[in-house]
Amino acid sequence: MTTPPSLETIKRAPKALLHDHLDGGLRPATVIDIAGQTGYDGLPATDVDELALWFRTASHSGSLERYLEPFSHTVAVMQTPEALHRVACECVEDLAADAVVYAEVRFAPELHINRGLSFDAVVEAVLAGFADGEKAAAAAGNPIVVRCLVTAMRHAALSREIAELAIRFRDRGVVGFDIAGAEAGYPPTRHLDAFEYMRNNNARFTIHAGEAFGLPSIQEAIAFCGADRLGHGVRIVDDMDVSGDGSVRLGRLASILRDKRIPLEMCPSSNVQTGAVASIAEHPFDLLARTRFRVTVNTDNRLMSDTTMTREMALLVEAFGYGWTDLQRFTINAMKSAFIPFDERLAIIDEVIKPRYAVLIG
Predict the structure, then answer these.
(1) What 3-state DSSP class applies to 251?
(2) Assessment of whether the complete model's pTM goes beyond 0.85
């Protein structure tokens, strides 16, 4: 008889992760260690457990803007090549230990130049850290493939430069581009030249949209910017009507999102912390999954949410009663939506994900 998904058994399941922020996933001990080495004295706590609790508590703010405030501390300790390399390497090791077999980890180079690093030097340090993390994970028996997304902050005016950076490093581990930050007042259309540059270079990009802002954010990301994926996208439910008998009617925007199979990078715990949804039980993930949108499970910020891919999946299992076939579908959804070439995606699906899930499904 197949063992039902539990926190312990889910940990063994192979996972694909599309939405994880490098500066939101540091180990608390690393934050304290680098702060001591670099002379940063702004940490709210210097005990590992107290600092971890502070990040988790401060991030549970009810708004995206306040949720982003604790990042000032993690970014502050990521200003040297050595620190960036270490954080990137540890990120890979932590994901691999959680049975993540493929991950796209994103970060904003413009936030890491306060000590004089160039954009190129920042990206080189992170990519070297990812490569060393992959080697360490493989040696530990947890092979993983990690690729990078470079992010531009939507309130700034550097998106075209960051898009050019993505293309410059496209054959060295950077597989896409993203914009992030506070949504209200900073629509994605402010960055049309960056998205046009990516399209002109046959490159892929995702856009944070429909998290703290409503349908107009999603409409712009899809119709005007041409996003390949949406970061979060939870507010697409505002274009869906659920009848008393459970039937669902999709509006025009929701229909095109589903029809075009545009992936939704959903981050349940983070969405509760920012106030995008009231609770995991009220998260639209299940409604979107049942109506066959291409939903994926993601961590967003592992430090801020005190989470892992295992925990995010377990929360969904507890809330919605998912079984192994559901978790396999969400994992394959993510792998299908990755920004690496088709043959590489297919190899991970056919040679890693499906065989390992076959054992779990029984």
Answers:
(1) coil
(2) yes
